[in-house]
# Entry
Amino acid sequence: MSGDLILFYVFAAVAVGTSLLVIGQRNPIYSVLLLIASFGALAGLYVLLDAPFVAVTQIIVYAGAIMVLFLFVVMLLNAPREEPIDPERLVEPQGARRFGVVLAVFLLAELGWAVARGARALFGSGSFDRARGEQISSVRYIGQVLYSDYAFAFEVTSILILVAMVGAVLLARRHDEKQV
Amino acid sequence: MATLNDYLVLSAVLFTIGAAGVFLRRNLITILLAVEIMLNAVNLTFVAFGRYHGSVDGQIIVFFVMTVAAAEAAVGLAIVIAMFRHRGSLNPDAFRTLKW
Amino acid sequence: MSVYGIVLAGWSSNSKYSLLGALRSSAQMISYELSYGLALASVLVVAGSMSLREIVDTQSGYWLGVIPRWMIFLQPVGFFVFLTAGIAETNRAPFDFPEAEQELVAGYHTEYSSMSFAMFFLAEYVNRVTVSAVATDLFLGGWHGPFLPESWGWIWFLIKLSALLFLYIWIRWTLPRYRYDQLMAFGWKFLLPLAVVNLLFTAAGVLYFVR
# Structure
């Protein structure tokens, strides 16, 4: 049981546990904070995978910016605690809930089967080689590849962010009496 | 040393949790959070495979996925705000009719 | 990520003054984070490395035997942007509207007293010292200085750090407070374009003069 393996299990347990709590919590504030913890655990996993740039980006972008956005929106809307399903108002929710759980179990079983069966046969060629890992994860190399091979995608992404900014501002605008 | 299988199983579990969250939760913001969980699971898969094959492409694609996720979260939350202002509820069941 | 502490503190106080102060403070912080990061990026472009130790090491030595090779002489605009954004980030005058005693009672820490309040203040001051320390490393040559051997460099570091903290205090007691909309306009309409242009010129300069 090497240290790496123990760390992997610790981070994996934190990620899975907090994700389960995220979807299980009634109060959306707690969900957001638990998801931040989950992202932290995932950043730890990225470091274990010799991807420090991705780990830092995860913390800065996901945990530091996107979750702040979620927190602001939850506070702005004063999001109420979710009420339990009202049995006499809607007919199907109880059955729908059970069906959803069954579907989730099926999805998990299918993914598990696919992973267990396919991974060994198809991907026998690679390995978690340490030296190669450190070579490809340097920020310098990532920068070089990003700006040369993926330059077009990079530029398109900047336009995408511009569109998202304009769209978000437009959609969340208050519409006064005069309909625009 | 954790093998590729371990990472893939972990991604699968996280993806399932996210998908279950999207199906089962009745709060728009929590549904968006579950979508973020799914995106993170996919990111983990990309990085694990990239590492396994000794290629940096996994990390580059994760960079783009994160950017797209940020843009999508921003627009999604703007839509949620607009919907909340209209109906006063964050329950997706309150938006049953096509009439705005 | 320090935004979380302020936002959650203000919101959990369940009072409108705290919430207003918290929202203003966090909006201010995320606005100035951009200029902060861009000024940092300009230094990285000049130094060519992300390691703090290497950045400080590129600042050792002298030009013409007299002027030390500090980054502040190569990046004066960058230093100005970094320090201004740092002062705004740490909610210090003239950008301390969210904590303004006269306007909002005490902003987001209205409802806190004794130990919790002490924690907030300690955290804020530690934040300011950290910003000054990072600025010393990036712009003022860190632990390099004349007359002392390298192992006593921490004395020079403390001297430079104290100079920056003195600057912090000096500015606080000299300048009047910005109103909130002036503060946000300054951050978005002046500081951010300045930081972007600085980065552009720095990158162009490095490309032209070094390669």
Chain C has eight helices and two strands. Strands of chain C lie at 62-63, 67-68. The longest helix of chain C spans residues 16-47.
